[in-house]
Amino acid sequence: QRAQQRLQVVVPVTLAIIFMLLYLNFRNITESLMVMLSLPFALVGGIWLMYLLDHNMSVAVGVGFIALAGLSAELGVVMLTYLDNAHRDALAAGRMNSPDDLHRAIVEGAARRLRPILMTVCSTVGGLLPIMWGHGTGSEVMQRLAAPMVGGLISSTVLALLVIPAIYALWKSRGLNSKNEN
């Protein structure tokens, strides 16, 4: 009970620290919030796998979710950084005049990050699967640590590859539309 009370303090503090680091990285609240959006998607995958494996909430599960938050934010940062770079390159080249130009820049930025994101997720999940299916002394605790991370990384990857570029397109198209109206 004491450990769960500590987790009730540690989890919000961890989320606040993640947001602060994101803001320091991007210097933009909107982009920081886009990355923070990946956390609920990661939680969904972690919770589903916990349900399928019939694991209860425990301190180890809480630690797994904290680690998942960091990994999920990292995936979002990687995607958003390359979307920003592709957008900036298109602007510098004078190729940001229409929604189609924006779409091309976003596809280009997302495509550049597809392989690194998938490599990161596959290597992390590959390293966690033996822990999740292990038997022996201490394996019960380690399984509960690894399960939310595996499930959450899968759902977080879908978010990083599909949802973040879509939200980025909506956000940048607002600026493009107001520029074209002037």
Overview of the structural elements:
With 182 residues, the protein is mainly alpha-helical. It is built from six helices and no strands. The protein has helices at residues 2-26, 29-36, 38-52, 59-92, 99-132, 139-181. Helix 3 packs antiparallel against helix 4 (59-92), helix 4 (59-92) runs parallel beside helix 6 and helix 5 packs antiparallel against helix 6 (139-181).
Quick take:
It is built from six helices and no strands. It has helices at residues 2-26, 29-36, 38-52, 59-92, 99-132, 139-181. The mean pLDDT is 86.
What is the number of helices? 6
Main beta-sheet annotation: none
Distance between the termini: 60 Å
**What's the mean pLDDT score?**
86
Care to count the β-strands?
0
- Low-confidence sequence ranges: none
List the secondary-structure elements in sequence, H or E: HHHHHH
As a percent range, the share of strand residues is: under 5%
Helix content: over 70%
Radius of gyration, in Å, reads 19 Å
Class derived from helix and strand content: mainly alpha
SSE topology sketch:
Elements: H1 2-26, H2 29-36, H3 38-52, H4 59-92, H5 99-132, H6 139-181
